[in-house]
Amino acid sequence: MPKYVMVIDVERCIGCMACVIACKKENNVADGYFRTRVVEEVRGEFPYLKMELRSELCNHCENAPCIDACPTRASHRAKDGTVQIDKKKCIGCKACILACPYDARYSTPEGVADKCTFCEHRIKEGKKPACVETCLGKSRIFGDLDDPNSEVSQLLKKHDAAVRLEFAGTKPRVFYINKKFAGGL
Amino acid sequence: MSITRRNFLKIAAATGGLAIAGTSTVTSVLGLGKKPVSLPQYIPTTCEMCFWRCGVIAKVVDGKVVKLDGNPLHPNSRGKLCARGHGGIGLLYDPDRLKTPLINTGARGEAKFKKASWDEALGFVADKMQKIKEKYGAESIALLTHGTISTYFMHLLQAFGSPNFAMPSFALCRGARGVAFELTFGEDVGNPERLDIQNSKVVVLIGSHLGENAHNSQCQEFAEAVGKDATVIVVDPRFSTAAGKAKYWLPIKPATDLALLLSWINVIINEGLYDKEYVAKYTSGFNEVAMAVKEYTPEWAEKETDIPSSLIVDTARVIGKNRPHVLIHPGRHTAWYSDNVQRQRAVAILTALLGAYGRPGGIYLSPKKKLEPVFLSDKDYPEPQKPALNKGDYPFAGEEGVTHVIVKATLTEQPYPIKGWFITGTNIMKAMPNQRDTLSAIQKLELLVAVDMMPYDGVMLADVVLPECTYLERHDDLFTVKERAFGISIRQPVVQPMYDSKPGWWIAKELGKRLGLEDYFPWNTFEDFLKMKCETWGIDYSELVKKGYISFPESEAPYITSDNQPKFKTPSGKIELYSKELKEKGFDPVPKYTKHKQPPEGWFRLIYGRAPVHTFSRTTNNPSLWELMKENTAWVNAKVAKKMGLKNEDYIVLINQDGVKSNKVRIKVTERIREDCIYLVHGFSSTSKLLHRAYLRGADDQQLITKYDIDPISGSVGMRVNFVKISKEV
Ligand code: SF4
Ligand code: SF4
Ligand code: SF4
């Protein structure tokens, strides 16, 4: 089983939002919803300021509370190690949405749970997720952490990376490097 | 005028291409009872969501565009699209699109439109054009054009006998920069600019918020430079996204940029940080510049700019010590004050002193490739009977013409009346300053025709509206791309035009027919013309159709080397630090600082700019992009907001010095802006009721720009001269 992860190089994000809309189009995400976002955080006072642009999406957690919360096993770990939702099994109870500490899930207008899939359909074809493919800053980097030669492995070896809400204990697979605000995640 | 003779009849008829997607399906051999699967088709074309013109690959399933991606072969996209590029689908399927020709049955500007057939609408336009020609002469019809490529409308106008066209790209955008670089280096810096950002050690953004101004390949290179730890210096009264990456953010007092630039030059010369060899070999006028900048010390500049002199010195040293791998971004929208060309000249001079022109990390040289021009027809244009007035009295006005001159001539009827306007692909109400002047000018017209895709504000004023189809549904002229290597990019339909919309070339040709100008349109379809053009240029048309982009890698020669010596097309053949041409025309040969007015107590300077998900005022109704940014906000410094008792997201109204009130707009209370400015993202608050999403959302910066300066050198306008105050009465 590969270990797909996303590394976000915060410093390289230029906030262009290409990722957000590429994701929407690729996955035909319903109007009014987004599977990924870019958050802007500013600290300091004029003129001593610092700003971080941080992409957020489903972390495909290793200890995924959304899976545990799902009564029908619609939320599950797929063969490739990613966390996925089987739409046919979803009864729309929203338990997973409440269980996710990252606000990564939403309920579609049809009433089923939905979220980032790491573009599993693209990974299968050997392509990168749509947001990664189009990222103007090459701020989103995707790959297999079990492959020591992959770009993500190399980056995580070199940098001291952080995950969001580490205390939640979910073991995210989305890592942040070159972050400005260590506690800001 | 001289035109290369060309045999239009020899067009190879069947250099077949891939063309528009039909649907190909596969009925699975074994899939008994299974539904047939539609195979996606991938068709390359060229983006038009902004004017970077990236290569796009459209994924079409069952005749519907489902995804757009960047063409990896195209140097402007490099396999990636920006948000707007991805959102092109939103334009194509926007239910608010113009669907049929319209004729206004009410008073001018009343927008009491009735639907018309193409025949009726074009007949109406041709008839009016002929009448204007008889009464006032052909020159009395002007064209304001931008956006969608205007080749055929300019061609039509010239064939008709008028030289009077103007594009916002000159006076309202890049003109001053073009003139400044031409005067200095003998050549504009290009569009896209020839900036070697990915190799820069120092990137200086002064008047450019790259990132928010999402120019695809440049953003990619900027992130590359940041990733390689280049030092970023950002000069901006606002803490832009790029400032968030900067080692030095200089929150300059607006209108004083030239002071900073001159003082940087002062330090670089005084401390001997310039490239002596380069300066000696390639430039002329160094001593004059050195003399002229003596007075512009950092201490002096501190008083003007609000930037501590120590910081001016520090940044000048960082810039000087990293020469020549320094990129002083020449910016794009350079229409700020009355001295735009001089400010841009300072950028050019600084670049030259650092030896950064033609060097890695600076501005790379144009690719070495010339293609012979191929014209839309081999017939000479008639000689206009009256002098062109589209350049006004500005000695360095460019070929693109000056928009405000057309407005003024229409208003005053001097030197002769202008009675007809064609507007194609530009939202004149949001592009040009002083909307009241534009509206009064329009009242003097006998004909206003708009060619566009959406009912933008300007379109609503027209007597006749001609619906053009989108860039995903039509052919356009080929684009020559001068990136590091030269290349050709094609725009071709990926789906059939929707509704009763038509390609621009068809509209021009049909109008031409009705005006008795059919000889100027000797091709049946535009594709025939493109094939002929490719044949002339020795390009395989079917390859271009399949790949979308063809590159000439042998044309690449970006840097100065011993066997690649630059040729400067200036009178002296050198980089002119001191400009004799300016001197001869009565202007300062070396830039001098001019003081501009600062806002009085209680007033703020209105500054405006871009958001990465919108282009001009042309995307605010796009369903996909609207969702990401529905309205703009007025950025106000947190201290100011506190003093005024304003909370984040409250609605306010802005009132300018002439008493013009904006639409209500939410306030963004932020530390990211100086106390003396208010910032708006450009292009919001559409007044067109037919744009259902964008209608009266946010505030229109252009509405508040009632005052404007004019740069006497180029005719470029200055649109950063308006002051506003805040009203809580919403
Ligand atoms: S981020 Fe939320 S939805 Fe995604 S795997 Fe973790 S808990 Fe589940
Ligand atoms: S595409 Fe990349 S650079 Fe642009 S906002 Fe998304 S993560 Fe940031
Ligand atoms: S920068 Fe974006 S909108 Fe402009 S041409 Fe490229 S993809 Fe299209």
UniProtKB/TrEMBL annotation, chain A:
Signal sequence, renumbered to the chain: none
Keyword Cytoplasm: no
Pfam families cross-referenced by the UniProt entry: Fer4_11, Fer4_2
Domain 4Fe-4S ferredoxin-type per the UniProt entry, residue ranges: 4-33, 49-80, 81-110
InterPro entries listed in its UniProt record: 4Fe4S_Fe-S-bd (IPR017896), 4Fe4S_Fe_S_CS (IPR017900), ET_IronSulfur_Cluster-Binding (IPR050954)
Record keywords, A-Z: 4Fe-4S, Iron, Iron-sulfur, Metal-binding
Domain of life: Bacteria
Keyword 4Fe-4S listed: yes
GO molecular function: 4 iron, 4 sulfur cluster binding; metal ion binding
Annotated transmembrane regions: none
PANTHER family noted in UniProt: PROTEIN NRFC, PROTEIN NRFC HOMOLOG
Protein name per its UniProtKB record: Fe-S-cluster-containing dehydrogenase component
Naturally occurring in which organism (per UniProt): Thermodesulfovibrio aggregans
Lineage of the organism: Bacteria, Pseudomonadati, Nitrospirota, Thermodesulfovibrionia, Thermodesulfovibrionales
UniProtKB/TrEMBL annotation, chain B:
Pfam family, one: Molybdopterin
Domain of life: Bacteria
RNA-binding in keyword set: no
The keyword Metal-binding is annotated on this UniProt entry: yes
InterPro entries with a match to the protein in the record: Asp_de-COase-like_dom_sf (IPR009010), MoPterin_dinucl-bd_dom (IPR006657), Mopterin_OxRdtase (IPR006656), Mopterin_OxRdtase_4Fe-4S_dom (IPR006963), Prok_Mopterin_Oxidored (IPR050612), TAT_signal (IPR006311), TAT_signal_bac_arc (IPR019546)
Domain spans labelled 4Fe-4S Mo/W bis-MGD-type: 40-96
One annotated GO molecular function: molybdopterin cofactor binding
Keywords: 4Fe-4S, Iron, Iron-sulfur, Metal-binding, Molybdenum, Oxidoreductase, Signal
Protein name: Thiosulfate reductase
Phylogenetic classification of the source organism: Bacteria, Pseudomonadati, Nitrospirota, Thermodesulfovibrionia, Thermodesulfovibrionales
